[in-house]
Design brief:
Rossmann fold; 509 residues; single chain; 55% helix; 434 Repressor (Amino-terminal Domain); three-stranded antiparallel beta sheet; 4 domains; five-stranded parallel beta sheet
């Protein structure tokens, strides 16, 4: 005799109500075993038992087969399944704000109850802050720095150093358009009174106005002043690559000092990843299949910039849930972490205006290089190359892509966050396939113009003959006048002039 089924409350939700009705139908049929029902329904006993368990919404085909095996009316049970599916969708839509996963969004202090797997990193950061007054937390975009500061460190600080009454000695600041002017009083070193803990994070709005250089330099000087012996400040700064560029785009004497105070954000271990996957679900009364947990860890372990993609995939699996269990089947249905990347990229593209979509196409093609056998690989692009790309929408588009963790903004380079952006985003693949030959010759042109510049504009490095003719036909015909940088246009112009001059000399001779 099998184990008794666990009690179900039909008031708990539409999935549980449907399961209760399936149990009642089976009881009316004389309570046959699931093994005997399997012979009539042509589904395994396990699948039929799971349909009546109430953990997740079974497929319509399983419900109809279950009902038919128990003598029920198939059409009636199809209608019941549809009602349950519609009600489940409404429940998901209503409670999406309470999802246990953040998707591509960073964690804030209000999400501390969902933030797991970073206890070791928080402890390491606290230890650093107690022995030195200034720490710069570094790491690639997408490695979780902002979440570590906001959902990991800040709540611990506020729990540990908040006095009984009086002002909060812990402050979170973002630079804003006038960082030194706005925060000068807060950041001024003091030689008396209680210590203040300052957490400096990037602005959540990548389109925020950039302060002038003098304002930025003064802001950094205020931050570094926390290291003075008389200071009563302890400062931790999110020194992401893009923020480092924001602080100062050129070399300054204090940049080495800043780097000397750096703590790299540690990579998550498999145990920490398991905690980040399972614990948020448990906090919401859900469970994660062991097979799904193992697959997720295999898919992202050792790839720190994939952490937002992990959370994004989990959120999409959570939205597909049909009960209290997040399953490997649903993860595979969304294409895994990689497939979710393609869906996310398309979501970002849909939010761009028409002008920005043209810019996105041009910029993204620069981040890709043709490989062998019509394959494509990521191409890190120098910031200087993108700054020379004369399209005012370039950085707004890059910020949107970086915000969705599709692009990584490094100190000196920008690149696609993962190969999956190429392989799983159908639109980008289509662009690349449509322009394969053009893309190949554009990469030749980019490298040739850079070499020409670095070698002092030597005439020997210019294009001649067939190579120049191909480049002229592809890039000077007016098809996409904004796709070349100023350097690339300068290189082609110099090549044409040099060739015309050589031909003139030849005719004169």
């Amino acid at each position: 005799m099998g184990r008794p089924e666990k009690p179900l409350d039909p008031g708990e939700g539409p999935v549980q109500r449907l399961a209760c009705k399936l149990r009642a139908l089976r009881a009316e049929a004389g309570s046959p075993t699931y093994r005997s029902l399997a012979c009539r329904a042509h589904y395994s006993a396990t699948v039929l038992a799971q349909a009546a368990a109430g953990d997740r919404l079974p497929s319509q085909a399983v419900v109809v087969a279950f009902a038919r095996a128990c003598g029920g009316n198939p059409e009636e049970w199809r209608r019941r399944w549809l009602r349950a599916a519609e009600e489940s969708a409404k429940v998901r839509d209503n409670d999406v704000a309470f999802a246990p996963y953040r998707g591509l969004e960073p964690f804030g202090s209000e999400h501390r109850q969902l933030y797991f797997g970073r206890g070791r990193a928080v402890d390491d950061l606290l230890s650093r802050l107690r022995t030195q007054r200034f720490v710069a937390l570094s790491g690639l975009s997408g490695s979780g720095k902002s979440s570590l500061l906001r959902a990991g460190l800040l709540p611990v600080l506020r729990d540990g150093v908040r006095p009984a009454g009086g002002p909060d000695p812990v402050s979170l600041i973002t630079p804003g358009p006038c960082p030194a002017t706005t925060h000068e009083r807060l950041l001024s070193p003091r030689d008396s009174g209680p210590e203040r803990w300052i957490v400096v994070d990037e602005s959540p709005d990548p389109g925020a106005p950039r302060p002038d250089l003098e304002e930025r330099l003064r802001f950094v000087e205020l931050l570094l002043a926390a290291r003075r012996p008389e200071s009563r400040l302890r400062v931790v700064l999110n020194l992401g690559p893009d923020f480092r560029w924001w602080l100062c785009p050129r070399r300054t004497p204090w940049l080495d000092e800043l780097t000397g105070c750096t703590m790299p954000i540690p990579a998550m271990t498999s145990a920490e990843l398991r905690e980040a996957i399972v614990r948020p679900a448990e906090s919401a009364g859900l469970a994660v299949e062991r097979e799904l947990t193992a697959r997720l860890i295999d898919d992202v372990l050792g790839q720190p910039t994939m952490l937002p993609m992990l959370s994004n995939a989990l959120l999409r699996v959570w939205c597909r849930r049909r009960g209290r269990v997040l399953t490997l089947a649903d993860y595979e249905a969304i294409g895994g972490v990689r497939g979710a990347v393609g869906a996310t990229a398309e979501d970002v593209f849909d939010r761009l205006c028409a002008r920005q979509r043209l810019t996105a196409r041009r910029v993204l093609r620069r981040l890709v290089a043709p490989g062998e056998n019509r394959s494509y690989v990521r191409r890190p692009v120098r910031r200087s190359e993108l700054c020379a790309f004369e399209d005012r929408e370039t950085w707004s588009v890059l910020n949107a892509l970086a915000g969705a963790r599709l692009v990584t903004l490094g100190d000196d380079f920008v690149e696609l966050a993962h190969d999956a952006v190429i392989s799983e985003w159908a639109r980008l693949r289509r662009w690349l396939e449509e322009d394969h030959e053009r893309l190949l010759h554009h990469r030749y042109l980019t490298e040739a113009s850079r070499a020409w510049q670095e070698l002092g504009h030597d005439e020997c490095d210019l294009y001649r003959g067939k190579r120049l003719a191909i480049a002229e036909g592809l890039f000077l015909g007016g098809r996409e006048p904004d796709e070349l940088t100023g350097l690339e246009r300068q290189f082609l112009t110099a090549s044409r002039q040099a060739q015309a001059q050589a031909q003139g000399h030849h005719r004169a001779a």
